[in-house]
Structure prediction request, 362 residues.
Amino acid sequence: MVKITVRVSLGKDSYDIKISYDFLSSLGKEVSKLGYSSKAVVITNTTIADLYKNKIIESLNAGNIESITLVVPDGEKYKSLKTASFLYDKLIESHIRRNNPLIAFGGGVVGDLAGFVAATYMRGIPLIQVPTTLLAQVDSSVGGKVAVNHPLGKNMIGCFYQPKLVFIDTDILKTLPLREYRAGLAEVIKYGFIQSKELLELLDNSPDKILNKENDVLLKVIAKCCEIKARIVEEDEKDFGKRAILNYGHTIGHAIESLTKYKKLLHGEAISIGMAAAANIACQMKLIDAAVVEKHKKILTSFGLPIKIPQKITLEEILERIKLDKKKKQETESLVLLKKIGEAEVFEVPKELIAQALENTR
Ligand code: NAD
Ligand code: GLY
Prediction:
């Protein structure tokens, strides 16, 4: 079996990301190796529990780990202080102490929520991330951002709390609905554009294999993304500098997501449109040429991702959402833009240029 390990080096908070296929049966052994208490808590959601609960318990048993499983409802709206409070009650009732590992088994919602609970329960218990969506495998499980939402904003209550292990089984993606999988691919494509021409070529050359979730190519792609994220997090763990480039396509993407009330588009779909718009802006600023804009369109559409702003959203609404006042003459917004394929930086962009690029992205 091929197994890839990516190390995230953060001094005493360093950890491994272990990636393989047909791997879930090894989870218990891997948790056991970390040397914490032999009683673990698994936090997951209803959808994933139906598919994997028995396999998780079996695997943990095989590593001599006794476990309790706490199941929360499926959905972003449950990434809340209310659900966290329900989980704290259960942890206290189950006599979970500081040496009991907590396994976050799910997509980004479960990972962020369970990670936040692990960070705050008894001032922190060991966290193991077992991401089950592509987005979570390449992005949210790595780097230690954990949070819950507040009614006034997403991820408003949170902290940085690095896991002790990220355990990735690419076979778990086989049950992930195709639309969710494609949305995760938007983040993969993002890594290619901001940091790796080689990854972008791999994506460009093998869309069918990737869409078919073939393990050999998936392993390579996920490992490359984790490697890129690990190096960025090592350089800027607390997000004061370089980590910002991970937000490529996100400023305009977030505006579109919130204007469609998080219902019409998945996060990755909105980011796909955001990247297409960002490419347009970079081209207008003469940072990249038209061929790179075309490359965005080609790769994003080859994975079935959208590249056009929905007709119903007006230009004014987007500008307002990214806090550009349409009445003021001179205004700029900080945006992550490409200097070339594989290199991104934050630029101050005048409102007029953004407005023009948004028109071109319809
Ligand atoms: P998600 O966690 O809601 O998962 C999407 C859907 O897929 C859910 O219905 C889930 O139950 C289902 N699912 C998950 N794994 C499955 C599997 N293997 N088989 C079948 N169904 C499965 O969504 P997501 O896109 O993974 O995560 C989005 C969240 O991640 C957001 O809350 C976002 O804020 C957060 N996020 C965090 C970071 C970070 O750095 N912490 C980065 C990016 C995104
Ligand atoms: N997903 C962005 C970050 O981890 O910084």
In short: The chain has two domains: 4-176, 180-360.
